[in-house]
Design goal:
The protein is an alpha/beta fold and 228 residues long. The chain has eleven helices and six strands. The protein has two domains: 152 residues, Rossmann fold (3-Layer(aba) Sandwich), CATH 3.40.50.1000; 68 residues, DNA polymerase, domain 1 (Orthogonal Bundle), CATH 1.10.150.
Length: 228
């Protein structure tokens, strides 16, 4: 038995170990454009945020539009090429997904990444077919489809509406402060995951401070969390 009817997954850093890769390349491009930032600092400041939100923060800090100095298409291609050679699923994720499915919960993705990137990365990590079988194939949702990205609740509320589950019956898996705030704003129970390559004790503290209901770092405990 479980108190939830649906589990809503953030993708990057929760299903796939992608944040460390994408943030490394984004940091390299920003540094080259004149905004020096390490991978670790980029993760701390910007993980879970949309590109527009990142641009706004940097412009506010510096008065400069650094993104205008970056070849966006080139950066996206560099990230995709790195994914092709480096990307892996989170350890134990498929077993965790199957165990939650066995509990009777529908599972969908609710991410800040674009739909094309989500399909590409989920296929690379052999997770696409799992979600294609959920909710009649309507199981991958992006901030592209809603007015506001995380920390606004829009993408989680869209996912809950599409699966026909009330927000208070939804659990969320998130790895960023923006994502935790988004899930809580939607009225959902949020579990903060810190078991990816960019996870750390500091991240755990940040997710707790943002309102995460519990923190975990091993997918083996997911079924237990869903049972409450």
């Amino acid at each position: 038995m479980t108190q939830f009817d649906a589990l809503l997954w953030d993708c990057d850093g929760c299903l796939i170990d992608s944040e460390i890769i994408a943030c490394r390349i984004a940091a390299e491009y920003l540094t080259g454009a004149g905004y020096p930032v390490t991978t670790e600092a980029f993760i701390a400041d910007f993980a879970g945020k949309t590109q527009a939100q990142i641009d706004a923060v940097i412009s506010e800090r510096t008065g400069g539009a650094f993104n205008a100095k970056i070849n966006t298409a080139e950066k996206k291609q560099a990230i995709l090429e790195a994914f092709n050679t480096e990307l892996k699923p989170i350890n134990g994720i498929l077993s965790a997904l199957e165990s939650v499915r066995a509990l009777g919960l529908v599972q969908v993705v609710a991410s800040g990444s674009g739909l094309a990137r989500l399909e590409h990365t989920l296929k690379l990590t052999n997770l696409w077919n799992f979600f294609a079988a959920e909710n009649n194939g309507q199981s991958v949702f992006s901030a592209e489809q809603v007015p506001n990205g995380k920390p606004a609740p829009d993408v989680f509320l869209l996912a809950a509406e599409r699966v026909g589950v009330a927000p208070h019956k939804c659990a969320v898996i998130e790895d960023s402060v923006a994502g935790v705030k988004s899930g809580k704003a939607a009225g959902m129970t949020v579990f903060g995951f810190v078991g990816s390559s960019h996870g750390s004790p500091e991240l755990a503290l940040k997710l707790s401070a943002a309102g995460a209901d519990a923190i975990f770092d091993d997918m083996d405990v997911l079924e237990e969390l869903m049972r409450g």
